[in-house]
Amino acid sequence: MAALTCLPLESKNRQKQNMMLFKNILTLLVICFGILTTDAKGNNKTGHISGSPRRIGSLADESSIRTNQPIIGILAQEATGKISKEVSGQYIEGSYVQMVESAGARVVPILINQSPHQILKIFNSINGLLLPGGHVKLQKSGYGRVGKMLYEMAVKSNQQGQPFPIWAECLGLELIALLASGRGLARGQYDTELLDHTDTKQYSKPLDLSSDYKQSQLLSSADHAMIQYMTKALNAFNNHDKGLTPEEMKFPRPILAALKKKGITHPTPIQVQGLPAVLTGRDMIGIAFTGSGKTLVFTLPIIMFSLEQEKAMPFQRNEGPYGMIVVPS
């Protein structure tokens, strides 16, 4: 039997802290009781949450518990450092449970010692995932191993047209960045090829949104009041020592290093678009350093070359050669 402890936020008043701990433990007991009830009613031999391919917020089979509330999985992690003196095994911070439940959702704990089959069944029964912050080493922890499994399941689900959101906090965001970049977890959050040291302890500032934020899936539907709230007040709290800079989000570090040797410290939008095209092995034809009539001179060979390639090897959308014309503005 795995030990799972739910820890509350620190408080000056010990009595309030104990009450918060009691509420969190009670929450987990209710969740566990619901799962056991599911086992009794649905003859589920595993004692874990059964899969639901449509993610409709149902626990186990159709004859058992159903809810219209979103069900959010929260990944547990090993108790290490100072926390290991208070609890053993694995834990989930009570503040994450409170945050999710205050928004109207229900919480399902995801244990780090469950089998891949059990993790998959839970994944198919939840509507979203929360990866908490923490201090475990991603390269050799159950948190990193199970988090990687869940991330890969989420990517596959989204590719199949079933949206599955992930909220990644602190260590969770480092995990997502390493996996999404292809770096993997071999060096964990200590991978300096991707993550830079940042001096952002106890620091709040407005969010700095890019000019094309309306094109993002996350903010495309945000109303004006929400954008004003995020960008005009000190609502973005930062408390971390590692970060992913905008430059690193566009280029691998070796390319950035090569550009810096050439005196290019901040890649331009044209460089951002052009270099990845070259690195994919695509053909780039024609770079003009003046505008007007020369633009047409470079455009025609691009069109002719593309048509010939289409005849030799038909390609679909987003395939074939890339043509880039650089003109002054």
Protein model, in words:
- The structure is a single chain.
- The protein folds into three domains: 68-193, 3-Layer(aba) Sandwich (Rossmann fold); 197-244, no CATH class; 245-315, no CATH class.
- Helix 3 crosses helix 4.
- The chain contains ten helices and nine strands.
- The protein has helices at residues 14-42, 94-102, 116-123, 142-159, 171-181, 224-232, 246-250, 253-261, 269-279, 293-312; strands at residues 4-7, 71-75, 77-78, 90-93, 106-110, 128-131, 166-168, 196-205, 236-243.
- It is α/β, with parallel strands linked by helices and 329 residues long.
- Residues 8-15 and 25-63 have low confidence and may be disordered.
- A four-stranded parallel beta sheet has the order 5-2-6-7, sandwiched between helices. Strands 1-4-3 form a three-stranded mixed beta sheet. Strands 8-9 form a two-stranded antiparallel ribbon.
How would you briefly describe this protein structure?
With 329 residues, the protein is an alpha/beta fold. Helices cover 39% and strands 14% of the residues. The chain has helices spanning 14-42, 94-102, 116-123, 142-159, 171-181, 224-232, 246-250, 253-261, 269-279, 293-312; strands spanning 4-7, 71-75, 77-78, 90-93, 106-110, 128-131, 166-168, 196-205, 236-243.
